[in-house]
Specification:
The protein is an alpha+beta fold. Helix content is 30%, strand content 24%.
């Protein structure tokens, strides 16, 4: 059965470039991003892993641990990392899961049905600190992911998890947010002391409450 938003992220034990990990233990009380790659030594993946390495401090600020996965082995991973560091002018600073038996790829339905049974699709899973899946995105193998967008989504997920708000189209951290419909007009002043704007009965905005 395919995983859905709100499902508990399946736990697993796997070898990585930073040693054996138990996924749930590795995440601890933090958030996680698990993202897969079709294979080692592929051009788009090389740029993606370099991009994530450069953004590692941004993920750290959000208490998010990142893990990459492909169905290649540790030896290939470690040699490929040398290429990534060289060509992307960075240092890979997060674990790459070696999934030669496809255990994790199959657990997360990452095997591309119309390509090779050994090639994972470009899947992204964001996992909350409750171990539930908050976001699933799947890209085609030909399209590199936008990790700045992933950080934007994580900002929204973390904000809306703790406040009665949603984020509008193209929202960025620091901009106004939308008050969810379940909050009555009478309760807004107490919940949102920064004030609010009533555009329509169902569309009410307020400054971001956690800054």
């Amino acid at each position: 059965m395919s995983l859905r938003l709100g499902d508990i992220a399946p736990n697993f034990v796997a070898e990585t470039t930073e040693g054996k990990i138990n996924f749930h233990e590795y995440l601890g009380d933090g958030w996680g991003v698990l993202f897969s790659h079709p294979a080692d030594y592929t051009p788009v993946c090389t740029t993606e892993l370099g991009a994530v390495a450069k953004l590692k401090s941004e993920f750290d600020k959000r208490n998010v641990k990142v893990l990459a996965l492909s169905v290649d082995g540790l030896a290939d991973h470690k040699e490929w990392i040398k290429d990534i560091n060289e060509t992307q002018n960075t240092t890979v600073n997060f674990p790459l899961i070696a999934d030669e038996d496809r255990k994790v790829a199959e657990l997360y339905d990452m095997i591309h049905p119309n390509a090779s049974e050994k090639a994972t699709v470009r899947s992204v899973f964001v996992i909350g600190n409750d171990k539930k899946i908050k976001l699933i995105i799947t890209y085609p193998a030909s399209t590199g992911r936008n990790f700045e967008e992933l950080l934007r989504v994580i900002d929204s997920l973390q904000l809306t998890a703790y406040h009665s708000v949603a984020t509008p189209a193209d929202w960025k951290y620091g901009e106004d947010v939308v008050i969810v419909p379940s909050v009555a007009d009478a309760d807004i002043p107490a919940k949102f002391p920064k004030g609010h704007t009533r555009i329509k009965p169902y569309l009410r905005t307020t400054p971001q409450p956690n800054i």
